[in-house]
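Lesson 9: reading folded outputs for more than one chain in a single document. The general rule is that every protein is listed as its sequence immediately followed by its structure tokens, and records are never interleaved. Here is the first one.
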Amino acid sequence: MRILVLGGTLFVGRAIVDEALRTGAEVTLFGRGKTGTELFPGVPRLFGERETGDYGALRDGSWDAVVDVSGYVPRHVGQAMDALGDRAGRYLFVSSHAVYQREGVAPGSTEDTPRRPPVRDTEELSEDTYGPLKVACEDDVLARYGARATIVRPGRVAGPYDPADAVPYWVRRAARGGRVALPADPGQPVQLIDSRDLARLVVRLLADARPGAFHAVGPDEPTTLGGLIETCARVAGSETEIVPVSPAGRPPMFPLVRPQWTTQQRSPARARAAGLPATPLAVTLADILAWDRGRGEPPLRAGYSPEEERAVLARHDAGAVGG
């Protein structure tokens, strides 16, 4: 199978390319050529810039499938499809759970959950626009490719090479041990998908030429935020005590904390039936820990700093005594 990957040198794209090559696919990469230049020697690279609409490198060639991991606004997707014309057999678009409406959703929601209204009048990515822009992208892919369109909607992706700090924060914090300040309910559900499981699903959907939308969520066994922290500690061999603290003053978008729990309880049934594997959560977290230590544990941008956490715990203890 000949696969063109739009992106492919960062986190999710890297895992997809790894898996596609492992299965014997012929992969071509399209991107700016500014990141991951040392990756995938021997894999053909086509250079272009989605922001400026430079798709000249796609004028020639044909592929059995395209995997779009770097389309965030309708212009990106529309221009890519225009450049490819009829020279791509299937278009697989990596979307997001942010496409869904947030109110009135029950646990176990499926891919048929109502989506948010599409947005086309801005390319500014924000909490309010990211999901609706992805909705517009999905609509355009479906309109152009029909039964040759596949939509994958991942939940929070976890694994080595994660450029976001949400999961590495808890892995590193639990490995340090001691009292862990949690400004949320430990019982909050958490859904993570191992990047390598996501990649295996993508390649399997292409191999089977499956149309439609698929949730990429895990782990196989439901877990909670408290359970995830405890699993992080177990794989690190550390001892921790989770201390639920007041959410007042916590940094915005605190790692893995969600106000609406049902967004972390979506059904993976359709994707499982299509071949989505389930790496055990402990394996995913252990691999993140090893990768984080191997890169020298650089400063994280998410969660509490050690100094902030000590202050939060001191305030909590003072309040408990005073109460």
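And here is the second record, again sequence then tokens.
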Amino acid sequence: MSNGGSNQPRPTRNQQREAAREKARELREAQKKKERRNKFFLIGGVTVAVVLVIGLVIGVVVQNTKPAGPGPANMASNGILLTGVDGVVTPVETKALAADADPIPTEQDDSGTVANIVVYVDYLCPFCGDFENTNGDAIRKMVEQGAATLETHPLAILTNRSAGTQYSLRAANAAACVADNSPETFLDFNALLFANQPEEGSTGLTNDELKGFVKEAGGASSINECIDSKQFHGWVNNATERALTQPVPNSDLESIKGTPTVLVNGKQYVGSLTDPAEFQSFVLQATGEAFSESTSTPSPTPTPTPAS
């Protein structure tokens, strides 16, 4: 009589051991396949990551080493020249120079009645900030009255002093963008950068903050794209290299040694950066010397007396 059990004979001990070994072998094979899959995905993932990193690095390098395009308009001398009359400051308009073209030195007023003020600045340089905050308003008034001209050269010497954000380069690029698109607002924008100057070693102002100061100065909205696209980064780097390695026009300086470098009628100001009276005295002296030179006439040559 059947009790519902299996009619198959029970496996022997050897058969059980063989079955166990086969099961173990299957588990080992499955584990090896799993490890091979994981290794494949790991290598594939690492490869994709490496490719992405390489692409990012190449993109950054290309962006920062791309050939310089044409320079900004109204900065043919590598600086923007501002003149004034009847209380109105007016930029001297010049065409944009082709990439790598030599700058055209400014023809200064040699009448001896005008102070030709030339300033080389880095917008992260604290000493430049001291000079601007001390003398900026007085210089503006002299320009407005026609007693002086002002030529400003933005440089990027301290590009590596802003925690990796390249603030000096970005700020100088923004200044070039303003000169190119809205030169009549340059003096106000320049003043805003120094009034809100970040500390050396900080991250500096963001591009959005720079664009905010462009708007506050009354600049055109097209300047925003110029800032974001780094349009004049290459030009700023070239202009900075020229300033540091080539003779300074309209002076006896072999090159710029640091910022601020301030010239009045070709003479370098080396006095206090925080004493407005000292700078005013220097301007009067330099202008007076130029006036004396422009109005002096050679002494008449004595007429020889004929021999008797």
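What the second record shows: The first strand starts at residue 80 and ends at 85.
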